[in-house]
Amino acid sequence: MKKDINQIKHDQENYQKEVRIFQEETVDMRKKVIDALDELKEEMTDSNIVQMRHNIIDFASSVRHQRDFDKESYDFILDNISNYEALIEKTGRKNGKVDAAAKYIRSRYDEYMVNGFPY
What we know:
The chain is mainly alpha-helical. Helix content is about 85%, strand content about 0%. The chain has one domain. It is rod-shaped, with a radius of gyration of 29 Å. The chain has 3 helices and no strands.
């Protein structure tokens, strides 16, 4: 009987060690997953910023080269500009890449709102 109790204690200690090891491994794995998700989120944010920046600059360039757009296109790009500016502010990044393009688009939009859109 005494041997059985000692064996039970020994088995219980081994089980507790295995549980601690499993818990530590789980914590490590969780940290790795969180770090990977944070990295992916950062990459997606960078990609979104680059894409929005490209769309804004491309739209401004098209307008400068006498391409006409309807009001819906201007509304869309103005929303894009607002989203870009909010994302830049939220992530603590610096703008400066699209300031002139956004200003130009807004000024053309204001002109069209007074004089009418070409389409």
